[in-house]
Design brief:
Layout lengths: L4 H6 L9 E4 L5 E3 H17 L7 E5 L4 H12 L3 E4 L6 H11 L3 E4 L4 H10 L5 E4 L7 H7 L15 E7 L7 E6 H14 L7 E4 L6 H14 L2 E4 L5 H7 L5 E4 L1 H8 L14 E4 L6 H11 L4 E6 L3 E5 L13 E2 L4 E5 L12 E6 L11 H7 L6 E9 L5 E6 L4 E3 L2 E3 L1 H9 L4 E11 L3 E10 L8 H9 L10 E5 L12 H13 L7
Parallel strand pairs: 1-10, 3-4, 3-5, 5-6, 9-10, 9-11, 11-12, 12-13, 23-24
Antiparallel strand pairs: 1-2, 7-8, 13-14, 14-15, 16-17, 17-18, 18-19, 20-21, 22-23
Helix pairs in contact: 2-3, 2-6, 4-5, 7-8, 10-11
The structure holds malonyl-coenzyme A (MLC).
Malonyl-coenzyme A binds next to helix 8 and strand 13.
Length: about 525
């Protein structure tokens, strides 16, 4: 039982269980005692619906204290949590359901019929629960009648606690399997490295269906047995007003650029804050410097990905350097390799490879893909291009894979291109990432239409994509062309497109928002 992540967390809960865990501004609060009881009830509701250890529970719900309870109830029941972005559309969901074959699905109340139909379409049998944003829905209703006592399921450290899906440069989205040890070890390392103190209060404004908001942020708080202020959605003004009640903040770079546009960001607003952390996308040096000038705080940038949580971090004590992601975590081996997989000397640019107790167990149902992503000696090939300087600081200098990071979300051009290419009247398309003042990068689609165009317009294409792809994947601009530039091998030259449209964007033809 002790290898079950829930028990690790429970061993760190405060002795006084009336101490707060979650505080929603203007809304609900949840103490550690209430958390303990509610996870027992939710775990019982899940197991009564037939969920057994090792089976999947797909969750697509709004951010709420109950959603956190559900995460921990899944872990406690030994089930595998499958968190899904609320922006995912029917086609995306059908694939995840079919691939992961969950025994239970928890969705927003207004999407119950749609989800039930998707379960049928995906050809699986799953109990559909609902959970709303204010603790409403069939799951909390049914859980209310259950006993709070629940014997935590026995799990080994290598058993899977969660599967997080990400798309890719080719083929179907892949589900990264994170074990109890993967999550627990990374949380323990970060908790120590970032110097969590008993009285810390984390201001939580991230979504909770991805690694950053779900695991990095919440797991540190749970290991600390302390409180978090839990905002349902990121709002820069609200967050700045809440700094005075908090000590630690974690955000994506877009959060910081939005703070910088506020007249209320000042040293006074941040007097109780001790640590600002940034990740999920590159933090521009301008943002780092402007934030320091406006608040006196040096943002701590760290680096990681879904397939292993965090890999590196700038130091808590010591120089936090702009443009770097700091040092490998104490329990993470990180190396830079060349094209033939040879390990490169310090100072040379190559692919970042990582190994450690946090690195995922592989992709769900994809042994071949898993094998391809690991080296013979067990390092995970991150696909990021980096370099290590003489002091040991790691910098990310590029990506080996075709990926756009928009507002902290990964968008794979291939997936968007496939969706565009399926539209009637489209011959082919190329999606490229363009610098964007708010989201860091945003997608631009360059589309070749059939002769006559079939009446397709950029707005029409955007509208068609909205129902098929999560909104953050929909390109911010679509341009129609007669052909795409290709090299001698017939491959589309995205670098040429980036160059041509960089000028177009700056000339104001592109919409920057
Ligand atoms: C929203 N939109 C986005 C977007 N977020 N478009 C591109 N990229 C995004 N990230 C869409 C909206 O749906 C809307 O479309 C339009 O853009 C404007 O929306 P908005 O109101 O300005 O956006 P908002 O709701 O405020 O959301 C922006 C945001 C959010 C930055 C707050 O994207 C966010 O919380 N990002 C955090 C992502 C995150 O947690 N990543 C962690 C991954 S884990 P329309 O069509 O309605 O006009 C990971 C590992 C690691 O990467 O290392 O951490």
């Amino acid at each position: 039982m002790k290898d079950n992540l829930f028990e690790l967390f429970r061993s760190r809960f405060p002795a006084d269980r009336s101490r707060p865990f979650i505080d929603v501004p203007g809304g609900a609060t949840l103490s550690y005692g209430a958390l303990e009881a509610a996870t027992g009830r939710y775990a019982r509701a899940l197991t009564d619906a037939g969920v057994k250890p090792g089976e999947r529970v797909a969750v697509q719900v709004d951010k709420s204290p109950e959603a956190v309870v559900l995460y921990l109830a899944c872990v406690r029941a030994g089930a595998i949590l499958l968190p899904l972005n609320t922006a995912y559309q029917a086609d995306e969901l059908e694939y995840f359901l079919g691939d992961a074959a969950p025994t239970a699905v928890v969705c927003q109340p207004h999407r119950k019929d749609e989800m039930t139909a998707l379960v049928g379409k995906a050809g699986i049998k799953a109990h559909v629960f609902t959970l709303g944003s204010v603790g409403d829905g069939t799951l909390p209703e049914q859980a209310a009648d259950k006993a709070a006592e629940f014997e935590t399921a026995k799990r080994g450290g290598d058993d899977i606690a969660a599967i997080l899906y990400s798309s890719g440069t080719t083929g179907r989205p892949k589900g990264a399997m994170m074990s109890h040890t993967n999550l627990g070890s990374n949380a323990a390392t970060l908790h120590k490295l970032w110097g969590f103190r008993p009285d810390d209060v984390l201001l939580h404004c991230l979504p909770i269906f991805h690694t950053h908001g779900l695991f990095v942020a919440i797991n540190c708080v749970l290991l600390n047995g302390s409180a978090m202020i839990f905002c349902p959605k990121f709002d820069a003004e609200q967050a700045i007003a809440l700094f005075k009640r908090a000590t630690v903040f974690m955000g994506v770079p877009t959060f910081y650029t939005r703070f910088l546009t506020s007249p209320n960001l000042s040293p006074e607003a941040c007097t109780s804050m001790r640590l600002f952390i940034s990740g999920s996308a590159p933090l521009l040096t301008e943002t780092f410097e402007a934030f320091s000038a406006k608040t006196g705080h040096t943002i701590l940038e760290r680096y990681g990905m879904t397939e292993g949580g965090m890999f590196t971090s700038n130091p808590l004590d010591g120089d936090r350097l702009a443009g770097t992601v700091g040092f490998p975590l104490p329990d993470v081996d990180l190396r830079i390799t060349g094209e033939d997989g040879q390990v490169l000397p310090q100072g040379e640019v190559g692919i970042i490879e990582v190994k450690g107790p946090n690195i995922f167990k592989g992709y769900w149902n994809m042994p071949e893909k898993t094998k391809a992503e690991f080296t013979a000696d067990g390092f995970f090939k991150s696909g990021d291009v980096g370099v290590i300087d003489a002091r040991g600081y790691v910098s990310i200098v590029g990506r080996a894979k075709d990926l756009i990071i928009s507002g902290g979300y990964n968008v794979y051009p291939k997936e968007v291109e496939d969706a565009i290419d399926r539209l009637e009247g489209v011959v082919e398309s190329a999606v490229i990432g363009m610098p964007h003042p708010d989201f860091g990068e945003a997608g631009l689609a360059v589309v070749v239409t059939a002769p006559g165009g079939g009446g397709l317009t950029p707005d029409g294409i955007t509208a068609s994509l909205r129902g098929r792809l999560a909104n953050y994947k929909v390109p911010k601009q679509v341009v129609l062309v007669t052909e795409l530039p290709r090299n001698a091998m017939g491959k589309v030259q995205k670098n040429v497109l980036r160059e041509s449209y960089a000028a177009l964007w700056q000339a104001g033809l592109g919409k920057a928002s």
